[in-house]
Amino acid sequence: MKSILENRPALKAVIDQIAEVTGYLWQKGWAERNGGNITVNVTEFMDEECKVMPAISEVKQIGLTLPQLKGKYFYCKGTGKRMRDLARDPMQNGSIIRICDDCASYVVIADVNVVPTSELPTHLALQNYLLETGSCYKATLHTHPIELVAMSHIQRFLKGDEMTRVLWSMIPETLAFAPLGIGIVPYALPSSVALAEATLEQIKTHDVVMWEKHGTVAVGQDIMDAFDQTDVLCKAANIYMCARSMGSEPDGMTEEQMKEVQDVFKLPKKRPC
């Protein structure tokens, strides 16, 4: 069967990057079994032939009405699919969907009828917000970074900006490459509308959000960007834990030192686009 990627090098490059990132997630131990989800807006790569492709699935409800998504196209990891398998064959372990005109349902158009992630309502709500605000961000990533999830089991780090402050203080690069810090969403049932709504509220001011006792959700200009921000924050968490394992609370950078980094490098305090 002919793939939608054939003779579409720009689209293939995006899917290849997704496959690359999913390999990294597996190697890091962040994607056990079928853990984690990815959704990327690929609308700009859809030519006229793509737009008339018939549905290969029945119409499925999103559970939300998302007016910015009418006629948009997304690559989505399949529900129950493993990241390690997606790295090897992204179009057999994920699919491209088209949002229907009612903005509340979708169909699969390529390559095979792989049902998207169970977290699709959250992912699409974030994509709707990004389009609504004119953002250039295209990708959403949910994964299970070990050290960050571990920190979310400690109440201290779930209050205010305490997790952000500690992570920023571990190494200057965390400030530089994750300048919006990490938002906190209290525990909610996975795949629920409540989780989607709480995540959306936090993503307004953060590029990475911590789901208590579960994992992270990140948005980025592409999937590598979303992965990089998560990776930087997880590295800081690992440094914190290594220091703690030596028997005392790490000092971290002072508030003055962190402000100096922010000022000298003119780090953004809001999403750049």
Structure description:
The chain has a nine-stranded mixed sheet with strand order 2-5-4-3-1-6-9-8-7, sandwiched between helices. The protein has 273 residues and is an alpha+beta fold. Helix 4 packs parallel to helix 8 and helix 6 crosses helix 9. The longest helix is centred in the C-terminal third of the chain and has 23 residues, at 223-245. The model has no long low-confidence stretch (mean pLDDT 96). The protein has ten helices and nine strands. It is elongated and about 60 Å long. The chain has helices at residues 9-27, 48-51, 83-88, 120-132, 146-151, 162-170, 172-177, 193-203, 223-245, 255-264; strands spanning 37-41, 60-61, 73-77, 94-99, 105-110, 139-143, 182-185, 208-211, 215-220. 39% of the residues lie in helices and 16% in strands.
**In percent, how much strand structure appears in the residues?**
15-25%
Total E-strand runs:
9
Percentage of residues in helical conformation:
25-40%
Rg (CA only): 19 Å
Shape: elongated
Structural class: alpha+beta
Question: How many DSSP H or I helices?
Answer: 10
Q: What strand order characterises the main sheet?
A: 2-5-4-3-1-6-9-8-7
Mean residue pLDDT: 96
Main sheet specs: 9 strands, mixed
Distance between the termini: 38 Å
Low-confidence stretches: none
Order of helices and strands: HEHEEHEEHEHHHEHEEHH
